[in-house]
Amino acid sequence: MEVTSARQRLQQMLADLDRSIGVLRGDPLSVDDRSPADAGSDLSDADRAQAMLTVATTQRRAVLDALKRLDEGTYGRCVDCAKPVPEGRLEARPEAARCVQCQGKRERRR
Ligand SMILES: [Zn+2]
């Protein structure tokens, strides 16, 4: 993938993530004015929002890292084995830091 189009896509992703994170954080998720009958669903809504916030924050960090690699000229190379990350993988996930093998190893280790 072209570095310029990768940068554009990453910056677009970053803008979208910032907006989502803002919405998730700004949402009051308050249960104060709800009836007790709604408390259960409110709690799961809050849990879901928290989970989405965690995912968005993690992905935002990955996008920022990818932009940093673009600046450093190491974008498109696996951060673990330094082999080129396949084009198709970068098309699907421009923020990918690792090739499929290293990502797989990393996920198995978790
Ligand atoms: Zn690798």
UniProtKB/TrEMBL annotation:
Annotated zinc fingers (dksA C4-type), start-end: 78-102
Biological classification of the source: Bacteria, Bacillati, Actinomycetota, Actinomycetes, Streptosporangiales
Protein name per its UniProtKB record: DnaK suppressor protein
Residues in the signal sequence: none
Statement: the UniProt record of this protein carries the keyword S-adenosyl-L-methionine: no
Species this chain originates from: Nonomuraea roseoviolacea subsp. carminata
Keywords for this protein: Metal-binding, Zinc, Zinc-finger
Region (Disordered): 25-45
Superkingdom classification of source: Bacteria
The UniProt record lists the keyword Zinc-finger: yes
